[in-house]
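Severity: low
Component: inverse-folding endpoint
Summary: output formatting inconsistent between runs
Steps to reproduce: submit the following structure tokens with default settings.
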């Protein structure tokens, strides 16, 4: 079971500053999350980026960051919560679920590394993509001279 996080502040001023810092962090994190999605056509950030940990992070580091992020996001008053807040909380939970399980984490890491490698298309795949884009078949009116120029350049 998770231990509750208790803050002992030396002054009311320190407590206010911490609250302001937390709100600023949540605002900045949410903005970055939205910008990433907009820039990458709705694609989600990877789990390591969501939890702000390195790929070599220990299970304890992952758990600690998940807990810190959840505390920060759950301090947002309910009436100030946006759809993005709820989406981020879900993403944090999902990232923790996958990265905390060694088998799921290994599968996730494998899929991450596969997606970073450039994918080469077979001739059939390239032709199919061309058909989808152009709405027709590739032109067969290309001379051998033009074909060799395309291949060599």
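Observed output (run 2 of 3):
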């Amino acid at each position: 079971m998770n231990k509750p996080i208790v803050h002992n502040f030396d002054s009311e001023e320190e407590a206010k500053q911490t609250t302001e810092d937390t709100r600023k962090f949540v605002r900045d994190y949410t903005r970055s999350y939205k910008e990433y999605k907009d820039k990458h056509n709705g694609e989600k950030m990877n789990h390591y980026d969501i939890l702000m940990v390195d790929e070599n992070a220990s299970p304890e580091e992952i758990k600690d960051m998940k807990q810190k992020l959840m505390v920060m996001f759950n301090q947002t008053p309910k009436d100030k919560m946006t759809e993005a807040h709820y989406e981020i909380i879900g993403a944090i939970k999902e990232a923790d679920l996958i990265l905390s399980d060694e088998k799921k984490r290994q599968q996730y890491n494998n899929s991450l590394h596969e997606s970073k490698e450039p994918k080469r298309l077979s001739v059939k795949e390239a032709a199919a993509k061309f058909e989808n884009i152009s709405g027709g078949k590739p032109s067969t009116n290309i001379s051998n001279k033009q074909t060799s120029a395309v291949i060599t350049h």
